[in-house]
């Protein structure tokens, strides 16, 4: 007779009555049923209540237990014995529990039992139950999980050994890979795989094990594995220099959509070279490592991660790649040929991390350049080889697929608090802040955290550096400092790479690789706050399309829509500092750039106002032109204010001398006058000083707007006085009434 209930406890817990999946009224009710059915013993109610709801309040726990019993499905209740003091399983209960069958199969000790146990093991015991249970239940669950995991480990190893001894190499490799997907740092399984292959492939498998152990446990290989590898390498003439460790020091966060897109690209047969392209500190290396780990099952012949940040010349690339693949070049064989022959017939993944400092456009066509060597590797190997590169600059090869990577999503202005708290950038900052300070509260610091994320535009490195200071500096002060001096944010960790020591160092790392023309253009573009058009870049910064394209390829310039670009705030602040100029020359160049920018946008506004149909009230094409000067772009504020970091202070209603007293072009209204209505009903909030001009009365009466002209004595010295004068009613002049004296053209006759 078939079992009445099928209880699946390995993996996600499920209970089936025949072929029908039973639905429980609550999660705790499901855990209660699983716990009782697994033990098959009668247990006191007080013990079950304390196990699931904690022992702090026994009365509350017993009440919750009574409620959970009412939410059990009837097929489950039919198999239980529920009394006033205990809950157990009926002696004639018909149950089929996968955990019991798994333990019985493992105890058999033969290949058949091991195969049955491997088929039954779907995952950890009661997967996901730790989120809903009390601490007492977690303690019991961890112990049971470790016991089941050890049984599953032994069963997988035993089955893989048996299959390989019988000559079934592919099934044996499949069993080993299945367990390594669950436990990538399993030493016994890696050692078993190394004994099945030759020395070169064993060394490559050892590199996979070493990286997996560093990621999972943060520890070097064990002494047993190190001694085994020493025996494999004994007798070679090449030095045994330790390879650079590429394991991440922190956990991976978010990027689920990016990982899905990258895995889809790797699955495309046409994509053999995939470059993750982005600004420094955006998380390219961490994303590539996670991609390699998740895609390991698709590449049975291995995944090789090669760090190139310490490489000084492209001439050493082939030798470094060979060592990353576990090969030891010796004799007259060239390292490039050795790597090509090793990877030619293998379905493998090669990750090349940090290529940008090896790329040289002048020597890109030479065979010894990094571009030439990567292209030759693709030509000399089979179609099953995939290469993933991380770089701030693409390789510009025909086979290359470029995946642009940006910062994490961050809250926008005016976004609701509940929505802002769920943004990946906010969650990432909160996680790193709790790592630095256990008492950090996201709900209390949410407005400041959102401002930090917006200023840094979700840059993971910047968020990590900012979060490391929350223990000693409030988030509000961090946000205020980043708005003015984001490039000065420095690192507090001693084991971070020098190029990531500060946000300024990140930009300087790319700045040093720019040509003189590109540096001049980038420092000039820094005067444009927000997004800008190609015309403004050409007129203000004298940057042509070729220069803009070059800066975009180097991840220093970002596209902001059709025909528009923008600078990351960190890049803009660094470039505006003019790092290559002396202090006096820097001030003079900044003033010249500001003057050129103001002249361009004021001329743009004048032309927009002079177009047909612009009066009255700025309708038609001119009003559409005004919409191009949207908030957030440099066009909306460039004509009236300098960048915030260099704006002079003013006192009261006195205008800043460097901006308010400059003479405007003839026939051009100030920015506040170019609005949808003239004259304005109230002064704009952003204007803190009184303009020193008066408007033409004739043009004002005509309704077409005034023509500003400088005057020595302003009519209204303050906005309040101007508003009162505007609201004061005008008196109508009347002819004086006669006082009773008749006037005539000539005197009366006497």
Radius of gyration: 37 Å
Question: What would you call the quaternary organization?
Answer: single chain
What overall form do the CA principal axes indicate? globular
Q: What is the count of helical runs?
A: 30
How many domains, as an integer? 4
* Separation, N- and C-terminal Cα atoms: 151 Å
Quickly give the structural class: alpha/beta
Number of strands: 17
Main beta sheet: strand number and arrangement? 5 strands, parallel
Low-confidence stretches: 235-246, 615-627, 630-714, 739-750
What would you note in describing this structure?
The structure is a single chain. The protein has 30 helices and 17 strands. A hairpin with a 4-residue loop joins strand 14 and strand 15. It has 750 residues and is α/β, with parallel strands linked by helices. The strands form five sheets. It has a five-stranded parallel sheet, with helices on both faces. A four-stranded mixed sheet has the order 3-2-1-7. It has a three-stranded antiparallel sheet with strand order 4-6-5. It has four domains: 1-168, no CATH class; 256-404, P-loop containing nucleotide triphosphate hydrolases (Rossmann fold), CATH 3.40.50.300; 417-504; 514-636, Arc Repressor Mutant, subunit A, CATH 1.10.10.
């Amino acid at each position: 007779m078939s079992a009445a209930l099928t209880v699946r406890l390995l993996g996600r817990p499920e209970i089936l009555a025949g072929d029908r999946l039973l639905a429980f009224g609550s999660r705790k009710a499901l855990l209660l049923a699983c716990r009782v059915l697994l033990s098959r013993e009668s247990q006191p109610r007080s013990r079950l209540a304390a196990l699931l709801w904690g022992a702090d309040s026994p009365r509350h726990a017993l009440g919750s237990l009574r409620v959970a019993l009412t939410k059990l499905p009837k097929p489950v209740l039919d198999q239980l014995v529920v009394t006033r003091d205990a809950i157990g399983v009926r002696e004639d209960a018909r149950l089929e529990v996968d955990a019991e069958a798994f333990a019985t199969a493992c105890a058999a000790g033969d290949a058949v039992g091991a195969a049955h146990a491997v088929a039954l093991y779907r995952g950890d015991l009661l997967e996901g139950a730790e989120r809903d249970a009390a601490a007492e239940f977690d303690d019991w669950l961890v112990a049971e999980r470790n016991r089941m995991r050890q049984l599953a480990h032994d069963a997988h190893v035993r089955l893989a050994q048996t299959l390989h001894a019988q000559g079934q190499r592919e099934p044996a490799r499949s069993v080993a890979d299945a367990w390594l997907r669950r436990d990538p740092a399993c030493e016994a399984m890696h050692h078993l795989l190394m004994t099945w292959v030759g020395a070169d492939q064993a060394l490559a498998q050892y590199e996979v094990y070493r990286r997996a152990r560093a990621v999972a446990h943060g520890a070097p290989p064990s002494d047993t594995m190190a001694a085994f590898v020493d025996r494999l390498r004994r007798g070679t003439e090449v030095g045994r220099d330790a390879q650079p460790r590429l394991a991440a020091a922190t956990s991976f966060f978010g990027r689920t959509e990016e990982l899905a897109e990258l895995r889809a690209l790797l699955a495309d047969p046409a994509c053999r070279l995939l470059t993750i392209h982005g600004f420094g500190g955006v998380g390219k290396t961490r994303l590539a490592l996670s991609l390699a780990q998740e895609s390991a099952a698709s590449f049975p012949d291995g995944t090789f991660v090669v760090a190139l940040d310490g490489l000084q010349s492209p001439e050493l690339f082939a030798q470094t790649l060979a060592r990353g693949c576990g090969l030891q070049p010796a004799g007259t064989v060239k390292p490039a040929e050795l790597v090509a022959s090793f990877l030619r017939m293998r379905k493998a993944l090669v990750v090349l991390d940090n290529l940008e400092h090896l790329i040289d456009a002048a020597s890109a066509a030479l065979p010894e350049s990094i571009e030439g060597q990567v292209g030759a590797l693709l030509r000399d190997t089979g179609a099953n080889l995939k290469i993933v590169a991380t770089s701030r600059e693409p390789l510009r090869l025909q086979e290359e697929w470029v995946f642009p990577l940006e910062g994490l999503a961050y809250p926008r202005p005016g976004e609701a608090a509940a929505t802002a708290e769920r943004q990946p950038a906010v969650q990432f900052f909160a996680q790193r802040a709790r790592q630095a300070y256990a008492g950090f509260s996201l709900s209390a610091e949410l407005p400041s955290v959102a401002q930090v994320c917006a200023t840094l535009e979700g840059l993971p490195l910047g968020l990590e550096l900012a979060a490391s200071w929350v223990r000693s500096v409030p988030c509000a002060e961090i946000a205020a400092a980043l708005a003015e001096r984001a490039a000065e944010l420095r690192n507090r960790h001693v084991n971070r790479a020098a190029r990531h020591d500060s946000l300024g160092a990140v930009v300087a790392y790319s700045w040093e690789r720019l040509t003189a023309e590109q540096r001049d253009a980038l420092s000039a573009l820094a005067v444009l706050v927000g997004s800008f058009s190609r015309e403004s870049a050409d007129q203000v910064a004298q940057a042509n399309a070729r220069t803009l394209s070059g800066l975009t390829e180097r991840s220093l310039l970002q596209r902001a829509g059709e025909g528009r670009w923008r600078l990351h705030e960190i890049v803009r602040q660094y470039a505006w500092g003019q790092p290559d100029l002396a202090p006096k020359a820097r001030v003079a160049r900044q003033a010249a750039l500001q003057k050129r920018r103001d002249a361009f946008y004021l001329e743009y506004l004048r032309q927009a106002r002079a177009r047909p149909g612009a009066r009255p009230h700025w309708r038609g094409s001119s009003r559409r032109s005004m919409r191009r000067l949207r908030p957030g772009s440099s066009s909306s504020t460039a004509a009236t204010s300098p960048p915030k970091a260099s704006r002079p202070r003013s006192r009261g209603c006195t205008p800043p001398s460097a901006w308010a007293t400059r003479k405007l072009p003839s026939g051009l209204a100030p920015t506040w006058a170019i609005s949808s209505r003239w004259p304005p009903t109230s002064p704009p909030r952003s204007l803190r000083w009184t303009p020193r001009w008066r408007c033409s009365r004739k043009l004002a009466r005509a309704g077409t707007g005034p023509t500003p002209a400088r005057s020595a004595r302003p009519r209204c010295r303050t906005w309040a006085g101007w508003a009162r004068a505007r609201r004061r009613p005008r008196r109508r002049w009347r002819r004086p009434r006669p006082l009773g004296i008749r006037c005539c053209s000539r005197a009366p006759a006497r």
